[in-house]
Amino acid sequence: MDKKYAIDANILISAHRLYYPFDVAPAFWRQLTEKGSGNIVLVDRIRGEISKRVRPPIIWKIA
């Protein structure tokens, strides 16, 4: 059985804003998308928080 990981919005928002902006580190987001697809769970409330703060919402591909 595959493991599932619940991720808080702050993890993804901080990664995008402080360390891995989409235009600077696209490989980070690509790897997260490829390796995390189906294994990362976001609560609906967290999805809403991320969609307000992160554009483009590439994260939907992983959860």
- Largest sheet data: 2 strands, parallel
Question: Percent of residues in helical segments?
Answer: 40-55%
Reading side by side through the largest sheet, how are the strands ordered? 1-2
Radius of gyration: 11 Å
Structural class: mainly alpha
For the secondary structure, the number of strands is 2
Number of domains: 1
What proportion of the residues form beta strands (DSSP E)?
5-15%
Q: What is the first-to-last residue Cα distance?
A: 17 Å
Note the quaternary state here.
single chain
Provide the succession of SSEs.
Answer: EHHEH
**Net shape:** flat
Unreliable stretches: none
What is the secondary structure topology, with strand pairs?
Blueprint: E1 5-6, H1 9-19, H2 26-36, E2 40-41, H3 44-53
Parallel strand pairs: 1-2
Helix pairs in contact: 1-3
What this model shows, in words?
With 63 residues, the protein is mainly alpha-helical. It has one domain. The chain has 3 helices and 2 strands, in the order E-H-H-E-H. The chain has helices spanning 9-19, 26-36, 44-53, and strands at residues 5-6, 40-41.
Outline:
The protein has helices at residues 9-19, 26-36, 44-53, and strands spanning 5-6, 40-41. 51% of the residues lie in helices and 6% in strands.
